[in-house]
Amino acid sequence: MIILLKLFLAHIVGDFLLQPTAWVKSKEEKKLAAWQLYVHSILHGLLVLLFLWNWQFWKYALLISFAHLIIDSLKLILQNNANRRLLFFIDQAVHFISIYLIWLWLEEKNFPFFIFENESFLLLITGIIFLTSPVSFGVKIFISKWTPDPQGQDSASLQSAGKYIGFFERMLVFVFIIINQWAAVGFLLAAKSIFRFGDLKEAKDRKLTEYVLIGT
User: Fold this and answer.
1) In degrees rounded to 5, what are phi and psi of residue 12?
2) What is the pTM of this model?
3) I need a surface site. Which of 19, 49, 117, 165 has the fewest CB within 10 A?
4) So what's the pLDDT on residue 83?
5) Apex CA 89: angle with CA 86 and CA 90, to 5°?
């Protein structure tokens, strides 16, 4: 199980934390001709070696890197505006399935490990990282069909403020659940609603109100 968590953690870090938005746009525009596609796939293999910290895993790292390249390439070839949301979730599901299958192949092998030997700790770290950019991308793509028209909207808000508010909100909910403080989760959502009420009231835009509620 510890190996599987490390492989998942490597995927999350490589696909979300270490992949700039410029790389994503370049891949979507140039598709298989984008050099970022190949560097991104190689990076996944290197992250696997880093987290497993054992050169004997090189063939599994190479396999994960190759599988990532194939999956991302198919996504770029098939992707269009109509299926973008669906392909995002399918792409991530296939990545996790491929990682799981590779783990099944090597689970009986017994290699020494460098760090992250505690499963509970590694699961906690993986959960925390998952709640940042990966969930943000997922929520953003899921609610993209309801995104209000930016024309005429107030653009004075801080850049990426909503994303980081979401980071902290999910982290706090995560911490409250772990320490068994369920009432605090309700308090947090209520507090956010109070702060947002004035903005939504002043916006005079029903679509914007519904968009914020769906996102929450």
Assistant:
1) -60, -45
2) 0.65
3) 117
4) 92
5) 80
